[in-house]
């Protein structure tokens, strides 16, 4: 099938979790197949894209790497807007990062609910 005739889909994926749990490493490993042991903390958000072919459909993943620091969580609505899903990340060596998973989940659901209720009203 001609590539130009294939259906294209864009999915926005946001990566959430505490600061320093490896969100940037995970994203770079998945997209670029690269690992760097030294990363600087993400400020705000950054995103990369990855194209996949699933059957006859081209899927572009827009993967947003969000800062885990609490001071950036208030910027949430802009990051969450248009998100199709999220990946919540923790560090197996840091118990606290596991204990906060539900907070990240609740924040995601809250932000999506606020965005949808604003959109639907």
List the helices and strands and how they pair.
Blueprint: E1 7-16, H1 23-32, E2 45-54, E3 57-66, H2 70-73, H3 76-80, E4 85-88, H4 95-99, H5 101-120
Parallel strand pairs: 1-3, 1-4
Antiparallel strand pairs: 2-3
Could you explain the architecture of this structure?
The protein is α/β, with parallel strands linked by helices. It has one domain (3-120): Rossmann fold (3-Layer(aba) Sandwich), CATH 3.40.50.300. Helices cover 36% and strands 28% of the residues. It is built from five helices and four strands; from the N terminus they run βαββααβαα. The protein has a four-stranded mixed β-sheet. Strand 2 (45-54) and strand 3 form a beta hairpin. The N and C termini lie far apart (42 Å). Keywords: GTP-binding, Lipoprotein, Methylation, Nucleotide-binding, Prenylation, Protein transport, Transport. One of its GO terms (cellular component) is endomembrane system.
Radius of gyration: 16 Å
What is the CATH level 1 assignment? Alpha Beta
Total beta strand runs: 4
Strand order of the largest sheet: 2-3-1-4
Per the principal axes of the C-alpha atoms, what is the gross shape? globular
Number of helices: 5
Which residue ranges are poorly predicted, with pLDDT under 50 across at least 5 consecutive positions? none
**Could you give the order of the helices and strands?**
EHEEHHEHH
- Biggest β-sheet: count, sense, barrel? 4 strands, mixed
Cα end-to-end separation: 42 Å
Whole-number tally of structural domains: 1
CATH architecture: 3-Layer(aba) Sandwich
Question: What is the CATH superfamily classification?
Answer: P-loop containing nucleotide triphosphate hydrolases
CATH topology assignment: Rossmann fold
What's the mean pLDDT score? 84
Structural class label: alpha/beta
Task: Estimate the strand proportion.
Answer: 25-35%
- Bin the helical content: 25-40%
